[in-house]
Amino acid sequence: MKQNNNENFKHIHIGKYLQARVEDLQIPQDRIGNFLNATDKEIQLMYQAESIDSHQLLRWSKLLEYDFFRLYSQHLILYSSPTKNDPSKKDIINRLPAFRKHIYTKEIIDFILELINTGQKTKQEIITEYRIPKTTLYKWVAKHTDSNTEY
């Protein structure tokens, strides 16, 4: 599914994304039903749902060959509160996998640059609101600026 650069990652209605991807790929309803073990009515309810069970979303991701979880990851990168270095939590053992917080996808970079290009936000607003390091933002602007686009 092609991501719109003006898309706001703040509000995610997963059912709409699922339905759009199905329409883009023109997947027959009976194939979806067989793969998900769901009736036509259940599938329509999923299209209307703002959120769905993670196991079900994983099945949709496999069927539609698209990582729908990435929508939520991008939301976390853009809108989660900054990590605080709390000394009292320094020695806590974490049994969960550790991920680097700021791995920016092409979609996020395009989204941010589009905000700057259209004048919706200034560079300083981007740095403040999304906590993107100044050097990172300026590297994106320099790398993605061509003769036709002024960021």
Short description:
The chain is mainly alpha-helical and 151 residues long. 54% of the residues lie in helices and 0% in strands.
Task: Provide structural commentary.
This protein is mainly α and 151 residues long. It is built from eight helices and no strands. The protein has helices at residues 14-25, 29-36, 40-48, 54-64, 69-79, 106-117, 123-130, 134-144. α1 packs across α3. The longest helix has 12 residues, at 14-25. Mean pLDDT is 82; it is low at 1-6 and 147-151.
Number of strands: 0
Q: How many DSSP H or I helices?
A: 8
Series of H and E elements: HHHHHHHH
Span of the ends, CA to CA: 25 Å
Question: How much of the sequence is in beta strands?
Answer: under 5%
Query: Can you give the mean pLDDT?
Result: 82
Topology:
Elements: H1 14-25, H2 29-36, H3 40-48, H4 54-64, H5 69-79, H6 106-117, H7 123-130, H8 134-144
Helix pairs in contact: 1-3
Annotation keywords:
about 150 residues; mainly alpha; 434 Repressor (Amino-terminal Domain); 2 domains; 8 helices; about 0% strand; disordered N terminus; disordered C terminus
